[in-house]
Amino acid sequence: MKPFWPDAGRCTVGAMGDEQPDLELIGLAADDSLLDAGPGRLPAALGRPASLTVSPARARVVGMGVTLTGLSLVGGIGLIIFGLIGLLGGGGGLAVVALIVGLVLAGTHWGWVHVAEATAQSLDRRSNVPVLDQRSRWLAGIAPFTHYEITTRAAADGAITIERIRYQPVRTGERTFAFKVDIELSEVHSGEEPGAAISERAELLRRQAALDTERERERFQIRADAHTREELSARDDRERAEVRAAESRALSEQINANLRDPPLVE
Predict the structure, then answer these.
(1) Quick one: angle between helices 58-88 and 93-107, nearest 10?
(2) How many helices (H) and strands (E) does the chain have?
(3) What mean pLDDT comes out for the span 61-73?
(4) Would you give the end-to-end CA distance of the chain in angstroms?
(5) In which region does residue 94 sit, left (phi positive, over 0), alpha (psi from -120 to 50) or beta (all else)?
């Protein structure tokens, strides 16, 4: 066995994932790029969002757009030739009209492709409304705390590598985050080692990774709850201050109104 770190046998992980303060991540939403993240870029525990489907009518619509594009180009060129021949032969308004229409058709023939693609995308959106809702809910359910996972892979010579992967949330924009993937541990077990020993080692690391992930989740949730309470308290304070200010303004206006009234004459 060739451990990647010196104390791989005990696999005691401290406060890993603390590089970025939780407070910087609280309130951030999962980046849309996670919807299309490939294998190994997301913790397996998060699952995967539903895949978008292609509308059955898309192929027909796109095919029609391609056909109209070809017809517009061919027809436009034909009308241009017809119009030029007519003008050279002394033709009148018909030749001019044919030339103008031909130029318009030939110059805008690619427009049919864009119209077809826009129509196809609209059809796809309609057919994927439930899927889009599910994908939005999936993104909203991802919280920015660190995950740890154990994976294994076999080599051609029979060796098995056990890796501990850390998925650390990092800010990707003003209001979004994604996961940075790092290999924390890499152990190579030769094919001569007993399979039971390798399985036991992998299971030990898996349990430790699960405990560390749960610790990170609880730690983040505690800080997120505290942050929420602070925000609610601050909002209540602002609302009370606004009420007091409104009452003060009303009282001031009442006093000013009384001061403007003429004094009573006895």
Answers:
(1) 150
(2) 5, 4
(3) 75
(4) 108
(5) alpha
Spatial distance between the Cα atoms of 124 and 183, rounded to a whole number of angstroms: 38
Look at residue 179 and give its three-state secondary structure: strand
- Residue 59: name the closest of 109, 120, 140, 102 by CA: 120
This model's pTM is above 0.85: no
Residue 27's region, left for phi above 0, alpha for psi from -120 to 50, else beta, is left
Closest by CA to 120, choosing from 166, 186, 55, 27, is 55
- What would the DSSP string read from start to end of 120-169? HHHHHHHHTHHHHHHHHHHHHT--S--EEEEEEEE-TTS-EEEEEEEEEE
Rank 50-59, 132-141, 239-248 by mean pLDDT and report only the highest. 132-141
Neighbouring residues of 65: CB distance < 8 A, sequence distance ≥ 6: 112, 113, 115, 116, 117, 119
